Amino acid sequence: MLDFLVFAVTMIAIWSVVALSLDLQFGLCGLVNFGQILPFALGAYGPAISAAHGGSISAGLALGLAMAAVGGVLVLAPVGRLSQDYWALVSLGASEIFRLLMVNVTPIAGGQDGTAVARVSNPLAALGLALGLLLAMLLLARRIDRSPLGRLMRVLREDDLLVATLGRNPFRVQALVTVVAWLMAALAGALYAHVVGFVAPSSFSVAETFIVWTALILGGAGSLLGAVVGTAFVQFISVSTRFLAAWSGLPFDLVANLRLGIFGVVLVLVFLLRREGLVPERKVRVDAVGP
Amino acid sequence: MLQILLNSIVYASEIAVIAVGISLAYSVVRFANFAHIQYAVLGGYFTYAARGLGLGFPVATAISAVLTGLVAIIVERLVFHPLRGLRPEAKMIASWGVALAFRSGVAAVFGGAARVFDVETDTYLLGDAVITSLDLAVVATTIAAMVVLQLLLYRTRIGTGLRALADNRDLAATRGIPPDRLTALMWFLAGAFAALGGTLFALETRLQPDMDLQILLPVFAAVTIGGLSSIAGAVAGACILSLAQNIAIGVDFGAVLSSRSWFLPSQFRDTIAVAAMVLVLCFRPRQLRSGGVR
């Protein structure tokens, strides 16, 4: 039981970082990334590709981070200043393409069956790493949130024309946010790979993206604490339905489907009943300084 | 070469019927409805269930279209209507919630296993190309559906009202067009077309809850290529996309470059779809057919 609790908290910490990354993109900057699983997958596939070809752990980490940074810019580039509908579709398409590529091209990292990577064998060490990463990322996100860049991101979220009239380049702000946020998610992905010890395409499906979205919307988009609270809540539902499946004897895939259904209903209900989420965004008041 | 063309037409038909519903909805309510894909899957299952009652294909498909249309209206009443004041992004995210709920519902009721429609098909030879009677029926149904939609939008008062609503909602409302009722009608049409398209898609392949992922990328790529809000654009997008996919998969690239035969593996179908979408977004910031349903 205790082992399981340690593992659950580790997973909550890792997925919280992914939700924080989405919060920077969507909550603060208004970027609708429907492929949020992609930077996480890129981060996890760095170690996997490295392991599959006999590279070291640090090489894998570096590869994952590099792929995420380049991937972010590549995915953002064709969309540029087009509306968010297109960005949503392109990011969704990119995440599916990457997954299909990993399924179909076996030499990269084992194809459908996946690859084993070095595993952090001590669960407490894994927990420490995950909590350390979450703390560091929370501090980074908080720093960005309260900086002039954070304010500019909020302006961009509300009105990109206004950003342009302030003499800033909206696309450059978006690109910067995307690279930083994707690096965060990639770090989480790399840690995930080493905690689980195994990387396969099935862990990075479209459904995972929307579990992160449910967590963020439930917690409160635009609030950093909200991303963590929402993730904890969603992972709690996830874990308890697993127990329910074992206890009630219902078929596993039925319960897995019902779990996704619950997330869908939660997502809709939050929009209908509590739009600002469990932890609403802090309203920022900025006074102009001096004459 | 003829075979590639034939395959493209059949695949484009399946995609186009689903895609026009997304464009129709986008032009009136201004957001990309991801739940639309689930309407198509649901429609396929409704047809399957109606077939199970011993009904013929045309009747079963009609019942499925009506039921799915009603489901779309219910979703509008329960979810999208209360959210109408929100930004398009919010509605788009909420539509994913609806999609997840539907997906799990379908999988829970019908199970995850694939089901196949029992159809007997005849095969015809056109030169060295093969076409089945099922293919012909799919294409004929699609053309008929498109003609009906076109007549409805351009030859009836309801159609004029819908197009006015798409053009300028406030102006249309002040001119006495009932926006809420027409929006409900629009959702009914979108749902019915999704059900028809989903049935055609399932006829050509298999019916299973995972079908949504096979439909999702090509349909949204087609709609995006066509400029999201234009129905004619969605059909054109479906044709362009289907042709690109079938050429990429059907042409022997190896023989062009060297003496060895080499085909692009067919698993890369969706990659072609997304690549076509990205290329269009890169080189054509203006839409293929701009504006709403005019």
UniProtKB/TrEMBL annotation, chain A:
Keywords from the UniProt entry: Cell membrane, Membrane, Transmembrane, Transmembrane helix
One Pfam family named in its UniProt record: BPD_transp_2
Keyword Membrane recorded: yes
UniProt topology in membrane: Multi-pass membrane protein
Source domain of life: Bacteria
Compartments it resides in: Cell membrane
Keyword Transmembrane helix: yes
Transmembrane domains' residue ranges: 31-49, 61-80, 86-103, 124-144, 175-198, 210-234, 254-273
A cellular-component GO term for this protein: plasma membrane
GO molecular function: branched-chain amino acid transmembrane transporter activity
Name this protein carries in UniProt: Branched-chain amino acid ABC transporter permease
Species the sequence originates in: Lichenifustis flavocetrariae
Automatic annotation (TrEMBL), chain B:
Domain of life: Bacteria
UniProt entry keywords in alphabetical sequence: Amino-acid transport, Cell inner membrane, Cell membrane, Membrane, Transmembrane, Transmembrane helix, Transport
Any one Gene Ontology cellular component term annotated for this protein: plasma membrane
Subcellular location field: Cell membrane
Pfam families: BPD_transp_2 (PF02653)
Membrane topology summary: Multi-pass membrane protein
GO biological process: D-alanine transmembrane transport; L-alanine transport; L-isoleucine import across plasma membrane
Residue stretches spanning the membrane: 9-29, 49-75, 96-117, 129-153, 184-203, 215-241
Single GO term (MF): L-valine transmembrane transporter activity
Membership in a protein family: Belongs to the binding-protein-dependent transport system permease family. LivHM subfamily.
Name the record gives this protein: Branched-chain amino acid ABC transporter permease
Source lineage: Bacteria, Pseudomonadati, Pseudomonadota, Alphaproteobacteria, Hyphomicrobiales
